[in-house]
Amino acid sequence: MTAGGWLFMSVSVGGVCALFSWCMWKVMTTPGESEHMHGFSADEETPDKD
Amino acid sequence: MILAVAGSAVGLGNFLRFPGQVAQNGGGAFMIAYFISFLLIGLPICWAEWTMGRHGGQRGFNSSPGIFNVLWRSPAAKYVGIIGVIIPVVIYMYYVYIEAWCLGYAVNFALGHMDFSTIQESNAWWASFIGIEENGQAFKGLGISHVGIYLFFVFILNFVLIFRGISGGIEFFCKIAVPTLVVIAFIVLIRVMTLSTDVTAPEENVNNGLGFLWNPVKTFVVETDVATGNSTRREIVDKGFKQKYGALDGQTVDGVKYEVDKVGVIKQLQSPKLWLAAAGQIFFSLSVGFGVIITYSSYMRKDDDVVLSGLAATSANEFCEVALGGLITIPAAVAFIGVAGLAGAGLGTFDLGFKVLPLVFSEMPFGNAFGALWFFLLFLAAMTSSISMLQPGISFIEEVMKADRKRSCAILGIITALGCGFVVYFSAGIKALDTLDFWVGTFLIFILATIQIIIFGWAFGVDRGMNEAHEGAAIRIPGFYKFIMKYVSPLFLIVIFIFYILMNVLGISFSGGEAHLDYHVTDLIGGDGSSPNMAAWLSIGLVGILFAFFAILVSGVKRYQKVQQNWEERV
Predict the structure, then answer these.
(1) What residues have CB less than 8 Å from B432, skipping those under 6 apart?
(2) Tally of CA atoms within 13 A in the half-sphere of B260 that contains its CB
(3) Distance CA B68, CA B53 (A)
(4) ipTM of the complex in this document
């Protein structure tokens, strides 16, 4: 692999890892955020289920 | 939580389609177009779908026809929304078939039945397993080396999970499956990165595999037979080969003229094909324009976070695709069969996934264990996507037929079982699968995504849409995205779609050469010496019948008519 290849791979892989990590950090550290990630918890009945 | 939301997006496309697309379309240069497409169409459509879905859900609608009808003041809205049901339902019909292949390969690897020494052997096993030789062949074998029993199992499993509901079924499964597949991917990745080099073929190594995938400047050698004028062009990655052919550049040796062609990033980015591939991969990978996200988000509460949810799901998917998928398949393949061998075998999803990789794993030390793990990973990835594909159909039937979940599961089960049976029966040349994948899994997705972003930006209104998106959001969408979502994304999509029609449908080549209608078109209308194909026609007929059936159901829903009447009364 050329130096350009290493650069593109590092930036691409590093970029998506950084974005994913930031999203996880944001969800974990924002108070009450995990309850607002979707409309129902696993303990509840699914809204469209009888 | 994030992994659960990402489940629908993480699928076979991440691990098989993505690396093949990158390697075929410019490596590092492809990634520039890929990330631009991600920012200009992937993220905007994702946020638009999450926002529109939640908005529709708050008004009591959970299917695309109902949600479109709420957002767009037009009697046509509910009929256009049917596309958002057709796409996931039809894709499910063939996706579950491929899912069964993954499970079948995992079981056969685990039992030590996979021992190939050539790509031809691997290809022959795949052909026999799925029954590609003639129509109906897939139904004939019932053994462990035939697709039938796996298909039956995964079909039932999908419906058991979907019957348990979004929370108890889809999310429950994704919470287990997505972390499991990430762990498996890391194990396989470590195995691939530590592969040793064969001393008899030093150019076949992981480093060259990474180079084949990521190098932004591509080097090709063109060998021309001086006597006949015939020439071949192939990519070279290995440093030794570059030096060897560099020394021969412009020279003729034993009647063969050698020329080395280096293609830089800028030149590659001028190719419409590269942009088309990058945008297509973003669609396929993020599941935008599938009709799945809009349904899923319709069950959210008013103060639930759509902005961070959308971004988190997207980033988890990108992580699986770029950081895992982008590092496993191609390097592993090149380490065993080299760049030339891989290019010869093909870089398509099926070529890479079900012909090349089985050969690679069967040659690898402890290959049966790693092969079983890898295909189980693919099976989990496919499952997380396929169960999500069923929810739009379930929600639609519940909404238009006022059916409970049990009845709607039964109705959708019959529809998809018939459709899946059709796809599996017409297994000769996987014609039905290929036709549906082209016209529904690609063509219709472009159309739906374009319609969705236009509805968000123009019919619903981008200012209103942004305000709606920010309700309950922990982060804000940057202000410039208003401009992007109103003007840039639709324009970008329309331009890409025009190029898609010109290149992939009408077969026009922008690099010169005669235009030939794509075989998906000639399968329907004949031409280029071939007559129309019955399986292709029946596939289109299946979609047409489904659309007509759904349209009849939609036309009789009084709640939809009331929404439009309210629009008129307000004016």
Answers:
(1) B94, B422, B423, B425, B426, B535, B536, B538, B539
(2) 17
(3) 9
(4) 0.88
By CB atoms closer than 10 A (0-12, 13-18, 19+), residue B24 is middle
User: DSSP letter at B198?
Assistant: P
Check CB contact under 8 Å for A48 and B394: yes
Q: Which helix (H) or strand (E) holds B258?
A: strand B256-263
CB B255 within 8 A of CB B226: yes
- Please tell me the distance in Å from B330's CA to the nearest CA on chain A: 13
Secondary structure letter of residue B442 according to DSSP: I
How many whole angstroms from its chain centre is CA B188?
22
DSSP characters for B529-558? TBPPPHHHHHHHHHHHHHHHHHHHHHHT-H
> In this predicted structure, what is the pLDDT of residue B564?
82
Q: Tell me whether residues A50 and B405 touch, CB distance under 8 A.
A: yes
Question: Are the Cβ atoms of A8 and B216 closer than 8 angstroms?
Answer: yes
Q: Rounded to a whole number, what is the distance in Å from the CA of A29 to chain B's nearest CA?
A: 11
**How far is A33 from chain B, CA to nearest CA, in Å?**
7
Whether the per-residue pLDDT at A50 is higher than 60: the answer is: no
- In angstroms, rounded to a whole number, what is the distance separating the alpha carbons of residues A41 and B301? 12
- pLDDT of residue A47 exceeding 60, the answer is no
Which pLDDT score is estimated for B319? 92
Report the Cα B89 to chain-centroid distance in Å. Answer: 15
Q: Is A29 on the interface with B (CB under 8 A)?
A: no
Taking chain B (571 residues) in consecutive chunks of 10 residues, what is each chunk's mean pLDDT? 64 88 88 95 94 94 95 92 96 95 95 90 92 85 87 93 80 84 89 80 85 91 90 87 87 90 91 88 84 89 89 91 90 87 83 90 89 92 89 94 91 95 92 93 90 94 95 94 96 91 85 80 83 93 97 94 81 59
Report the 10 Å Cβ neighbour count for B335: 24
Which residues does chain B have within 8 Å of residue A13's beta carbon, measured at their own beta carbons? Answer: 322-323, 326-327
In this structure, is the dihedral angle defined by the CA atoms of residues A48, B2, B4 and B6, taken in order, positive or negative?
positive
| Mean pLDDT confidence for A8-15 | 95
List C-alpha distances in Å: B428 to B137, B140, B532: 8, 13, 15
B253: left (phi over 0), alpha (psi -120 to 50) or beta: beta
pLDDT of residue A41: 41
Q: Quick check: A37 pLDDT over 60?
A: no
Hey, is the C-beta of A3 within 8 angstroms of any chain B C-beta? no
Please give the C-alpha separations between residue B393 and each of B62, B390, B400, B430, in angstroms, as whole numbers. 10, 5, 11, 25
- Among the partner-chain residues B35, B215, B398, the one whose CB lies closest to the CB of A48 is B398
How far is B323 from B214, CA to CA, in rounded Å? 12
Is there a contact between B305 and A37 if contact means CB atoms under 8 Å apart?
Answer: yes
Longest dimension (CA), chain A: 59
The answer to whether the CB atoms of A5 and B304 lie below 8 A apart is no
Listed residue (B15, B87, B59) closest to B388, CA to CA: B87
- Model pTM? 0.90
Q: Which of A27, A30, A45 would best serve as a mutation to test chain B binding (most B beta carbons within 10 A)?
A: A27
Of A4, A12, A38, the CB nearest to B5: A38
Of A24, A38, A40, the CB nearest to B309: A38
